[in-house]
Amino acid sequence: MVRFDWDLGKVVGDKTAKVLANTLDLHTVGDLLRHYPRRYVQRGELTELSSLHDDELVTVVAMVKGVSKRSMKNRRGSILEAVVTDGTGELTLTFFNQAWRERDLRPGQIGLFAGKVGSYRHQRQLAHPDYEMFPDDVTDFREAAEKYADQIIPVYPASVKLPSWRVAKCVEVVLDSVGDLPDPIPDDVRRARGLPGLAEALEAVHRPKAIEKAWQAQRRLRYEEAFVLQTELARRRLSTAALPATPRAATPGGLVDALDERLPFELTEGQRRLGAEIAAELDTPHPMHRLLQGEVGAGKTVVALRAMLAVVDAGGQAALLAPTEVLAQQHHRSLTKMLGPLAQRGMLRDPEIGSDVGTRVALVTGSMSAAARREALLDIGLGDAGIVVGTHALLEERVQFFDVGLVVVDEQHRFGVEQRSALAAKSRDGTRPHVLVMTATPIPRTVAMTVFGDLEISTLADLPSGRADVATHVVPVDEKPHFLERAWQRVREEAAAGHRVYIVCPRIGDGDGDGEEDAASPAADDDRRRPVAVLELAEMLRSGPLAGVDLEVLHGRLPADVKDAAMARFASGEAPVLVATTVIEVGIDVPTASMMVIMDADRFGVSQLHQLRGRIGRGSIPGVCLLVTDAPADTSSRERLDAVAGTRDGFALSQVDLEQRREGDVLGAAQSGRRSSLKMLKVIRDVEIIQDAREAATAVVAADPELAEHPALDEAVRDVLAEQEADYLDKA
Ligand code: ADP
Ligand code: MG
Question: Of 209, 249, 583, 647, which residue is 20 to 30 A from 13 by alpha carbon distance?
Answer without folding.
Answer: 209
